[in-house]
Amino acid sequence: MKYDHILVRYGELTLKGTNRKRFTNVLKENVIQSLRSLEGTRVKCERDRMFISLFEEANVNEVMNRLTKIFGIKSISPVFKTTQNLEDIKQLCVSLAKDFANGDTFKIDVKRVDKSFSLDTYQLQRELGGVILKSVDHLKVDVKRPTHNIKVEVRKEGVYIYTKVIDGAGGLPTGTGGKTLLQLSGGIDSPVAGMEMMKRGVKIEAIHFHSPPFTSEKAKDKVIELTRILSERVGPIKLHIVPFTALQKQINKSVHPRYTMTTTRRMMLRVTDIILERIGANAIVNGENLGQVASQTLKSMYAINDVTSTPILRPLISLDKEDIIKKAKEIGTFEVSIQPYEDCCTIFTPKNPVTEPDFDKVVKYESVFNFDDLVQEAADNVETIEINKDYKTEKDKSTDALIDELF
Ligand code: ATP
Ligand code: MG
């Protein structure tokens, strides 16, 4: 039997009172966008749930796969819809039960939303349980721990029958929580930080600092690929790639070797702030995690943070590395992040960076050279690309062309 609808349950939306309408509208738009390239679906939004109609040509598995990635969805169920006619309901339950394996048990769970329906909950449960037992002899009833829980929802417009409830991504619909700029390195942490914020309904653009020739095209492609993976959930994401070589060289020339890391981060933040202003975002997101490396002590964060009054969100600040890795694996960025291409910080990292930078010294070392022009220049020469889930790098394209030629 082929499912004809998918029932979509909203996540925390129900808690959002007056905002609910706006939230459901955004969620509906996100679902439509995500399913756009697939055939045979129609989205219908109700106050506290959504139904996706599936037509003959619909690929149910692919539709479900995409829905489970959309933030703001608590769970989904593939369902069959029929009329309120008792015979129709019975027939559907029986066809469904015929697919259950020999020796399986079941339970009927009726939800009678339409109170005008002729039978009460208990009567309908008994009718349906009875007809299944009579028509399919290899099944038994077990109300405590059934193999299959057949849920029957009686509503005004029809009756929905289903057995599976599949977890959604949770969180809030992307686009309901404002815009942030994510500092995206090629490492494990920052893509996870971005995903955590997107889960709270926040839209992100990403900024990456690139120092050719010290960092390779491959390092850049890695960040593009990470952005592409993030975009699978939320649609196109803009990636701003900042040429950082001149700044990085100057930092290494004029700042005390133990303090170059602190100043590098401060310069990154200054450039980030200029781009943030330009794109109308309200906060910066990074993958900092307390105690992980030299730049991530409180004293270090204090010194770095000093160059901006823009809120910096650090969703991973208190997590254990193991948990971050687990999340990276779940969202599919881990394998890309561990590819060994250096990002600009790794290359310029001093052997012995100060872990507790003295704020006065930070300012003193930086005062030897006026970085303003270099910061502005880096921001002015940013390369911005919009990346969606089908984005191909130049390298991907040439590989494709080569394959086309061969076959
Ligand atoms: P990650 O795994 O995200 O690289 P990390 O543990 O390696 O983090 P750092 O290298 O100290 O930590 O970087 C801390 C944060 O600074 C990163 O999570 C990221 O948000 C930002 N960052 C570092 N390098 C870059 C870069 N080249 N471009 C953009 N942001 C960067
Ligand atoms: Mg890093």
Q: How are the SSEs ordered, and which strands pair?
A:
Blueprint: E1 5-10, H1 20-35, E2 41-45, E3 49-54, H2 60-67, E4 73-82, H3 86-98, E5 105-112, H4 121-135, E6 140-141, E7 148-155, E8 158-162, E9 166-170, E10 179-183, H5 189-199, E11 203-210, H6 217-234, E12 237-243, H7 245-254, H8 260-279, E13 283-285, H9 298-305, E14 312-313, H10 321-331, H11 334-337, H12 344-348, H13 359-367, H14 372-380, E15 383-387, H15 394-406
Parallel strand pairs: 5-6, 5-7, 10-11, 10-13, 11-12, 13-14
Antiparallel strand pairs: 1-3, 1-4, 2-3, 4-8, 4-9, 7-8, 12-15
Bound molecules: adenosine-5'-triphosphate (ATP) and magnesium ion.
How would you characterize this protein structure?
It is a single chain. With 407 residues, the chain is of the alpha/beta class. Strands 1, 2, 3, 4, 5, 6, 7, 8 and 9 form a nine-stranded mixed β-sheet that branches. A six-stranded mixed β-sheet has the order 14-13-10-11-12-15, with helices on both faces. The chain is elongated, with a radius of gyration of 27 Å. Helix content is 42%, strand content 21%. The mean pLDDT is 92. Strand 10, helix 5 (189-199) and strand 11 (203-210) form a beta-alpha-beta unit. Helix 3 (86-98) crosses helix 4 (121-135) and helix 8 (260-279) packs across helix 14 (372-380). The structure holds adenosine-5'-triphosphate (ATP) and magnesium ion. ATP binds at residues 208-209, 265, 287, 296.
Spell out the key features of this protein:
single chain; 407 residues; alpha/beta; VC0802-like; Rossmann fold; 42% helix; elongated; binds adenosine-5'-triphosphate; binds magnesium ion
